[in-house]
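Researcher: Before we compare anything, I want clean individual predictions. No alignment, no superposition, just each chain on its own. First chain goes here; please echo the sequence and then give the C-alpha cells.
Model: Echoing the first chain and its structure:
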Amino acid sequence: MNTLQLLLEQYKKGWSLEREFYTSQEVFEQEMTYIWKQHWLFAGFSCEIPESGDYLTYMVLDQSVIIIRDDDGQIYAHHNSCRHRGSAICLEERGHEDKLKCPYHSWVYDKNGSLRSARLMPDDLDKSQLGLHPVHVAMIEGAIFISLADKPPDFSQEIAALSPYLRPYQLDNAKVAYRDRYELEANWKLIGENFRECYHCGPVHIEYCSVVVGANLVEDREAVVAESKVLWQQQGLAVDTIENTGDASHYATRYPLRPGMESYTLDGKPAALPMGQYKQYDNGVVGLINYPNFWMDGVSDYIWCMRITPIDALRAVVDLTWLVDGKAVEGVDYDIERLTEFWKITGEQDWHLCENNQKGIRSVRYEPGPMAPSEEDVVNFHTWYLNRMRKGVMKNQ
C-alpha cells in the first residue's frame, strides 16, 4: 500500500486531514494527476478577451494554455506549444494577436489552432495534421473553464446550476476594473478550506461581519433570509442554495447583507453602477464555487473573483479580479480604492490565516483535529477531494 492509499484509509470524517495532505510533494504530484489535469478549471472571463485576437494564457504547473477569441466571437483554448519543435507561442499573460506566430521558426496558426503556414517546409507537408493541440473549453455565462484531460468529466450539471446565478451579471458585457495577485506560503487546500467556513469570521473579519448579517455565527438571520428571498423571487432571481455534497464540485447561494447595506463596502453603500440586468442594489450576495479553483462573490454593483493555482505542496497563487458593468466609467461611476478596499482587507486577513495554518501543520506534533458543526462545508470539500483521489488511485491500480 502506497503513502496516498494509507492516508486515504486513515481519514476520519469530520476531522482535519493528515499532515501529508498539506506537505507531501508525493501527494501533491498525485493531486496534479488526479485533479488538476483531469477536472474543469476556471481560467478567466470572456470580457477579458472582448475582441477577435485577444488572448490570455493560464499556466497550471508546467502546462501553459492559450485562450483566444476568433473572428466569429468563439473562444478556443490550445496547448501553448508549437507543433514544429515545441516552443511556447504566446509569451505574455495577456495580449492581442491577429494570428498565432511561433517566435522560434515562424510557424503561423489561425486563432482556431489550425496551421496556416510553415515557412521553408516541403510543399507536401500535411498542415491539416499539425494544428495546435486543443484544450477543452466550457462556458458558463461568460466564465471560461478549461480541462487538460483527454476526456474531461461531464460539466453539464455545473453549467445548469451556476448559469441562473451568473446570467443577471451579463459578463460578456462586463469589464475588469482591477486585478491583484498573491503568492501564498500555503497549500492550495488550506485556501479552499478557509473560504468554506465562517467559524473564524467573528474573531477575524470585523469588516465582513459588519456588512453580512449572521456572518459572526451568533445572530439569528433566518427572518432576514426569508424576507429577502421573497423579494428576490419576485424579481426572478435564483435563490435556491445548491450544496456541494458527495461528488458535486459546485456550490451556489444567494444570501442577504445587513438591512440597510447595499454592497460589499466598508460603509455598505454602493461602489459602482448596478451590473448587467440589475437595476437596484438589494439583490443580496451571490456566492459561487467550483472546485478546485473558482470562488466568486458578487453583489449588485461588482464581482470579486478568486482563482487558486498551486505552485507546489507548500505554495499557491491567488489571482483576484474585480468586475464592474461595462458601461461604468472609472473616476465617474466607481473609484478603484473604494471598489477594492473591502476585499483587500478581508482577503489579506485570510491570507495570513492560511499561511499561519501552513506553518502550524508543518509541526512534527500536528495531528488531525475535530471540526466544529459550522465547518460542515469544509467536510464537504474534503469529501469531494478525497473521492477524486480515491478514484484516481483505483483507476491506476
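Researcher: Okay. Second chain, same rules.
Model: Second chain and its structure:
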Amino acid sequence: MDPVDAFVHDDGSPDAETQNWLQMLPGTVYVTDSAWWLGELRFVGDSIATLSHRPVEDHRSRPELWLAQIPEPERLAVLKQLQQALTLGSPAIRLSYVIERSDGSRCTIDDSINIQRDASGVVVTLVGLLQPRVAAVAGHDGPSLPSLLDHCGDVLMALDEDLDCHHAAGDTQGALGVASESLLSSSLFALMAPEDGSRIRRLLVEMAASASSSLVELRLRHRDGDYRWFEIHFSPYPLPLTPASEPSAMPGWVAVARNITQRRQQSLQWDAYTATDELTSALNREPFMGLLRHALSNGEVGARFTLIVFDVDRFEDINQAWGREGGDLVLSCIGEMCRAMLRERFSFGRLGEDTFALLMSGKSLQETATIAERLRGRFASTRVEFHGHWLSFSVSLGVAGRRDGESAEIMLARAEAGMRDAKKRGRDRVQQAP
C-alpha cells in the first residue's frame, strides 16, 4: 500500500489525528480532488498563510486563490504539466512555479504531488507538499546570498547620488511594510521625515567630497503611515548608474539600514526618566535648556516661540511655616495644575527650587501674556490642604517673545527680568520682559 493511502480515507479526507500530524510536517501539506486547486480542497496546513501572506481561511473557502497567485502564462504551463501527468498515469509529479503575493513580493514554490487513483485508474485525490525554494550557491551547500539577505533583518540598498534606489534586498517587508520591488526607482528622500531630509542631504554632500562613510539615524515612513527609526550606514561606491559620457558629480551609495525603533524608544524612555523632576514631572533645568536651544536653532525662520518664567512668592516663608513637606506639596500642586490646565503646545521645566518655565509654540506675546494671567489667577485662588490646614500661595510671572538671532540664554534672561520686575511691582502679577 502506498504510504499516502494510510492517511487518506475513502472520501479523500484525513481524519483529525492525521490532520494534527500533517500540521507538524516541514512544509505545507494539502489534499484536493482531481481538479487540484480548482476543485474541492479537503485539507491544507495552516502554514500556507506564511507562503501566500493570506489567512488560511481564505484558501479553505476559496481554493482557487492559490492558483490565482501564479502569474500567467506560467499558470497555464503548470496546469498543462499536471494534466499531462494525470493523463499519462504518472503516480507523482513535481511542479515548480512562482507565486505573487498581495504585497507585491514573490516566492518560488516546489510543489510535490502524489496522484491517487481508484481501481479503474481514475484520479480521485491529489496530495501535495508545498515548500519555498531555497537555492544553493554554486560550489557550496546552504542557502544563496539573496536568501541570506532576505532573512538577515536589515535592508541593503544600492542608491544613486539622489538616493534613487536601483537595487534592494533584505527584510524590506518587516522594516517598511513593502516588497523590495516597491523601492526600485523611488528616492529614499521620499520616505524620510521632512525634518531629516535636509540634514541628510548636507551630510551626503560632505561625505561625497571626502569619499567617506557615515552612520546616521533617521526616520523612514512605514507602509502603515507611521515613521520608524533607522540606523543607516552609507558607503560611497562608484555605481554605474549613469552613462559614461555623463559622469556623476557624486558617487552612488551602498546603504545598510537597520530598524532601531525599539532601541530608540527605550532610550527615550530612559532619557525622560532621568531628565524629569520627580516631584513636579517637569523637565530639569539642563534638559529644558537643551530643548529651548533646539527649538530656537532648528525652528523655521519666523516661527513664534514665547517663554513664561515664574516662581512662588515668598516660598521661603512657606517652608519656614510648614516645613519642607508643606513646600513640596505646593510645588507638586503647581506641576499638576500646569499639566492639567494648559491645552496648548508647551514644554514645562523646573529651573530652580521654586522657579518654573513654560515654552510656548505658535503663540504671540499677547496670547502668551493672557495664558500667564490665567495661570496667575488660578494659582492665587488655589487652597492646598495640609494636615487640617489650608495653604495658599501666589506666583510672579515674566513673559518674553523670541527675537531674531537671540540665544536661548538671552531669551531666558529677559523672561527672568520680567519676573523680577513683577516682584518689584508687588508680586502676584504678570510682567512682559524688557
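Researcher: What stands out in the second chain?
Model: The radius of gyration is 34 Å. Additionally, The chain has 13 helices and 17 strands.
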